Write the structure tokens for this entry.
Amino acid sequence: MKITKYRLAKEIDVPSQRIGEIVKGKRAVTPDTDLRLCRFFGLSDGYWLRVQANYDLQLARSAMGDKLIKIQPWAHG
């Protein structure tokens, strides 16, 4: 399916700038945008929020680098 950012924005009733910023990685998908996109593409609610969460986790892992490796699991008991 080929659709322009402008056409998608029109179809889901959001500013085209919002779609452009999401595509460029400059804006996160919000619950509002998720619901609109999921309805339009026939996906289950929350799909795009899960994609966003995975993307955010990848960015955080990259940014934290060795700091994350140094953290040891808590051995409670």
Summary: The mean pLDDT is 95.
